[in-house]
Amino acid sequence: MTDRPPPEHCTRADLDAARTARLPDLVRPGLRVLFCGINPGLRSAASGLHSNRPGNRFRPALHRSGFTPRLLTAAEQDELLTLGLGISNLVDRPTAGVRELSDDERRSGARLLTAKVEELRPARVAPLGVTGHRAAFTAPRAHGSRTGSEPRLPRPPMTRPDARFDALPPLFCSEDGIRPGPHERPGRPTPSGKP
């Protein structure tokens, strides 16, 4: 990523140009966990590094949650692969915010993500952004909901039983680390596997 500026040095022109850039997935077959965001931000696309917006909580949350032995910088993202962790997105198109994405883009991304998971066969897929994933898989009532009021992520139509999409609860990056969503039941396993 030699010609790309660090996020703190992105100009308006860099961000505008990033709208047509493509941020490659950070994946390999057999990952322990594939983290799946909605789509890349403009600063990440401009720099060529995932979660590279200043103030992004993903990498600090990975460390505080025990997924990484230390806080990795965005430039060290390849080290995630050695830890069995990968990053992908539902939609490849970089935007300033997820509201710029159409429902069609999200549904198309869901089909592509399903195929990607079937090919790569990660042990777990951890969705980051429940609302966006739910819209992508077009579930009016999310999978596992008894009343329809509990926001649960729908299960995509995976053909391989070992491609577990809902094995981790929907995750949110907070200052305390990666945690289950606010509507998850207590005692349900967290990313570390502990309730």
UniProtKB/TrEMBL annotation:
Q: What's in the keyword line of the UniProt record?
A: DNA damage, DNA repair, Hydrolase
Q: Which portions of the sequence form the region Disordered?
A: 135-195
Basic and acidic residues bias spans = 176-187
Pfam families (alphabetical): UDG
Q: Which Gene Ontology molecular-function terms are recorded?
A: pyrimidine-specific mismatch base pair DNA N-glycosylase activity; uracil DNA N-glycosylase activity
Which residue ranges run through the membrane? none
Q: Which GO terms describe its biological process?
A: base-excision repair, AP site formation
Q: Which InterPro entries match?
A: MUG/TDG, Uracil-DNA_glycosylase-like, Uracil-DNA_glycosylase-like_sf
The Uracil-DNA glycosylase-like domain covers 25-142
Q: What is this protein called?
A: Mismatch-specific thymine-DNA glycosylase
- Give the species: Kitasatospora cineracea
